[in-house]
Amino acid sequence: MAECHPVGYQWVMEAKRRGAKVFHIDPRFTRTSATVDTYVPIRAGSDIAFLGGIVNYILENELDFREYVVAYTNAATIVSDDFQDTEDLDGLFSGYDPETGTYDPTSWQYDGHLPHGQMNDTPVQRETAAALQHESHGPPIPPDAPRDETLQNPRCVYQLLKRHYSRYTPEVVERVCGIPREKFEEVARAWTENSGRERTTTLVYSVGWTQHSVGVQYIRTGAIIQLLLGNVGRPGGGVLALRGHASIQGSTDIPTLFNLLPGYLPMPHHANHPTFDDWVGSIAHPSQKGFWGNARAYAASLLKAYWGDAATPENDFCYGYMPRLTGDHGTYQQVLSMIDGKIKGYFLLGQNPAVGSAHGRAQRLGMANLDWLVVRDLFLIESATFWKNSPEVETGEIVPEECRTEVFFMPAASHVEKEGTFTQTQRLLQWREKAVEPPGDARSELWFFYHLGRRIREKLAGSTLRRDRALLDLAWDYPLHGPEQEPDAEAVLREINGYDVATGRPVSHFTELKDDGSTVGGCWIYSGVFADGVNQAARRKPHTEQSWVAPEWGWAWPANRRILYNRASADPEGRPWSERKAYISWDPDKGEWTGPDVPDFERTKAPSYRPPEGATGVAALAGNDPFIMQGDGKGWLYVPSGLVDGPMPTHYEPAESPVRNPLYGQQANPTRKVYRRPENPINPSPPEPHSDVFPYIFTVARLTEHHTAGGMSRMLRYLSELQPEMFVEVSPELAAERGLEHLGWAHVITARAAVEARVMVTDRMAPLRIEDRVIHQVWLPYHWGSEGYSTGESANDLFGITLDPNTLIQESKVGTCDVRPGRRPRGPAYLEYIVDYGRRAGLTPDHHPPIVTTDAVNAARGNAKRSTKKED
Amino acid sequence: MGVRTWIEGWPVYRQLTGTDPLGRGAAAMSARSERLQPRTETADSMARSVCPYCAVGCGQRVYVKDGRISQIEGDPDSPISRGRLCPKGSASKNLVTSELRQTTVLYRRPYATDWEELDLDTAMDMIADRYLAARDATWEDVDDEGRPLNRTLGISSLGGATLDNEENYLIKKLFTASGALQIENQARI
């Protein structure tokens, strides 16, 4: 955090100054490690074993915050008799189908339930990364599950969790993660002692967790700990994702993502959502609790924003115009489709996949096989110049005279040359004023896409083709300003906020959106950013002139709440858990929830409220159900629905590991998304032979002085001077083992690539004892490429493509490698060098690593077939 | 120059007698540095902005002189950053003013070995033509069972995490209405 989010880190230092203990768990000793109380080195890819150890420590010693856990989580909920755990099935859950590599989640459900609609269709869920829909709300489930609040029933979530993690002992943590028992216990003790009524603990993570084949389950394990300790919805608590781009949260909320629509509505699927009613019906369970029950209003208002007057209740708001998914259309599938010649045109909008995405060679070969490419950026990045300056030009794989891709470089306006909002990592929207005009031909994306759309619509005018109606009926009229005809960004923000069609009055809350076509709402979770006709994101009241929560600086979704689910900061009766941790509480005299933040609850719903029989939606939420976007109003320790790879996180080895899984016969995530193609070889892992060809673990990360793929930092003088060269960090022990010289050259090799770098011999990288072996880890920054003031080779070239099955995010924080002294071979000799490594590792083109590595697979499958209950 | 002025010209004298005993402020100033003004004070205007790098969202004040960016500073009013910027945020003026910045359209023909210049209006028109042609050539109306698809898998896009919400909104809206659904950004990475 000190390295990649330094200014945010000032608050960690502020907390430390006031007595907080800070722990840093990371494969590499960084600038963060240097400032904390205790640094804990860990083997990259073993975090679930470590966190599972903490869960076990909490449950074995009954250190959970019991009143919070019973009232606010699903600990008491009873799970189906048919459920079988990884403890029973050697690392698989019940319902596994080895043919598809996915689960039938029927046996995972709460007792008496069956999965709702598409939640049962896990192959489609995986192909469409459906779990991402749950960023704003839980999966659809019925509200009425049996509970045992004594937590004694052996089928209740609490007992299942206890059994599942019982083997994650300190000894196992030591063997799997390389963390000595004393260090593990120091963290476990501090975390539990600093949680409860009087104290809270914060957990912070970044892409070091997401970029794994089990990334979602890493974060789930963190969430389980925080729920067990009562650290969710309370000040000083939470699971905080530190995201790495100025508006990456915004581009998830208003998604330029294939599988989502604004506000986490799913992009329609051809088989599951043929009609508007099918689509809306799949989003929310008809009887579920909470605000997600109003999904029909959010969906209708979005289509109304897209197609304006043409969208009416009679024509299902033009739902028939919507494109449909048939499977995986994610960025990695797209790149492979480019290599196959299926994609004609590609837009790159401030992103540099030649350096930033996994498997850079596949990225560049894909781009070299397009009809046309449009690159919009400030600089000539590697993704714009791959056809004349790339490793593949050097090897002869790309020959400019034979490369057919037509490239348009369209200069972009910078952040000070346009106005608009970024959404930062805590869901806060901040409006930027425009300082100057963009230079030359540089234009904003707002300008580019508005005018591209205008030209396309003009060219199609008069078309009678059915497919062109969606473009011709599109609501595409925004006020234009200035000589360049720049669209009015505030007008777009107003449409995002939503308004009443008849009066034009902006809505002030998403509860005002209607399902009858009378409201427009471009992104329901952003409703309120233009409340009262005022751009709330532009608010700049100094922090010195308002409360510590600073609610009048910018605007946070939803409804300007700064801490989500903050009803949980009060006890079930609505009183603060303690005076020290008071935040939102019930004021019986006023009959409302009060506090320094916007209550994440109906303001006047009393803690004593109990829903009448048969209530649904918001009315079904009791006065002590804080998790108002969940189908049962509870925080989920166990996930019966919505995840592809299991209801409880389980330690699997990374797709590439030098270690046999010490816990289960199942080596790696049995549902991970793989692409079995010759250009995507995966290094062998146990139980397969030859993993010793790539004996080391490597991981990558950022430096303070550079930014991701370098397109915004290697082009700057000062930053290039501060960190001028690509390097690789190795321990003194590994340097001795491989003959590496400090400041000399070395290269790191995988089945995909060899990347050379200057050697930094440093005890920042420590060898770890895993099982009975010493395992070496190496670390590389991934900022470099062939353009800019500072050039170097790209670490992400080393990775293959293996994805988390819930998000389709690639495993690019851990892999196996070899390290050799000196520079790598060049030209054709380089290709032969990589092929030779693959040959020694047994990687023939038709060989692919096994997905299932346990004999228990037949028992797991049999269980799935025994499930015969009918849909409820 | 009188003796008094001469003596007061000594920094050490000012340090011992003035309000700056550590000699790191007014006492250390020369006649020239005393007359210097920060660019933030001589700016024609200041825009309230946000750092474009990571997602912490530090406040920036962007100072403009004669139509050009003269300085970018941290915004002390921000409850997020309290005026601080990291090395990248502090260097962000150079992001905008870097000599490497490409400010005109460039065009690479198929099989060409170098860039050529292209007029912005022409480029926009060429891209619109190619967009429609790719869409026409790869359009899918229905699936095998006659269910609607309304889409093209011939067009891809990557990017959005560095862009504004309003921009992402228009990108998604236009692509969706065109049937182009292979739209991705850094959030998938």
UniProtKB/TrEMBL annotation, chain A:
It holds the Pfam family Molydop_binding. InterPro entries: Asp_de-COase-like_dom_sf (IPR009010), Formate_DH_Act (IPR048158), MoPterin_dinucl-bd_dom (IPR006657), Mopterin_OxRdtase (IPR006656). SUPFAM superfamilies: ADC-like, Formate dehydrogenase/DMSO reductase, domains 1-3. GO terms for cellular component: cell envelope. Its cofactor is [4Fe-4S] cluster. Residues 699-813 form the Molybdopterin dinucleotide-binding domain. The keyword DNA-binding does not apply. It comes from the Bacteria. Its main location: other. Residues 127-150, 845-872 are annotated as: Disordered. One of its GO terms (biological process) is anaerobic respiration. It is found in: Cell envelope. Residues 863-872 have a biased composition (Basic residues). The keyword Iron-sulfur applies. Residues 2-380, 410-452 form the Molybdopterin oxidoreductase domain. Keywords: 4Fe-4S, Iron, Iron-sulfur, Metal-binding, Oxidoreductase. One of its GO terms (molecular function) is molybdopterin cofactor binding. Belongs to the prokaryotic molybdopterin-containing oxidoreductase family. NCBIfam families: formate_DH_Act. This is Formate dehydrogenase major subunit.
UniProtKB/TrEMBL annotation, chain B:
GO terms for cellular component: cell envelope. It comes from the Bacteria. Belongs to the prokaryotic molybdopterin-containing oxidoreductase family. InterPro entries: Mopterin_OxRdtase_4Fe-4S_dom. Pfam families: Molybdop_Fe4S4. Keywords: 4Fe-4S, Iron, Iron-sulfur, Metal-binding, Oxidoreductase. Residues 44-100 form the 4Fe-4S Mo/W bis-MGD-type domain. It comes from Micromonospora pattaloongensis. Its main location: other. SMART domains: Molybdop_Fe4S4. The keyword Acyltransferase does not apply. This is Formate dehydrogenase major subunit. One of its GO terms (biological process) is anaerobic respiration. It is found in: Cell envelope. Its cofactor is [4Fe-4S] cluster. GO terms for molecular function: 4 iron, 4 sulfur cluster binding; electron transfer activity; molybdenum ion binding; oxidoreductase activity.
